[in-house]
Task: structure prediction
Amino acid sequence: MPTAMKAILFGPPKKGKSIILNQLAISVIHGIDWLGFKTNQKRVLYMNFEVGHRSWQIRLRKYCKVTGLILTDQLLLVSDLMGIRLDTPAGQAEMEKLIVLHKPHLCIFDPFKKMITGSSNNEESVLACTDFLDKIIFLYGVSVFICHHSRKSKVIQSGALDLGSQEMTGMYHLAQWVDTIIQLIPVANDKIKLEFECRTGEDMLKPMNLALNRSMAGFEVVP
Result:
């Protein structure tokens, strides 16, 4: 992910979004491929608001043990199930302090709903949050990767209607604000498909099929 870029991964709950972002974080701190994409070795700040810290640590260590990778001080893990409210002065000050102190290249936020005090439909909260993120991107050159949920699918006579990035919960502003959108689509038990919308890339990215390897606590690319 280039410097000062914005991306969002969204999909239904409990289908592997956090696992994919765990793999991203580990890949970046080691500078190895992430699901076939090249990464540069950089420091990562991972703000986890979704999974209890102990469960999160167990999952990360399981993945590292199977892959032979190690957790290093290049990955800063912040776990707080209360979240951090980036639409408030206090939350913004706390976040900026973390960035100044630890100097990450990539900041991962999981999930978006715990980054704001209002709902993801609240225009004032969403705009305050994204304006602040634009500020830290500009001042500190960080990249931002957000985990978000999808709305309940619309169903028509022929089945569920896939609206692409409009399937994201909340304001469409988020889809307009980011540079890259990754949609996670469940296709079978422990199997998902990723679809990409990239506004800055020259080439279109083809959908990617992934299968969950439970013994590794990670996804693998499959045909």
About this structure: The CA atoms of residues 117 and 219 lie 32 Å apart. The chain has one domain: 6-222. The first helix runs from residue 17 to 30. DSSP finds five helices and eleven strands in the chain.
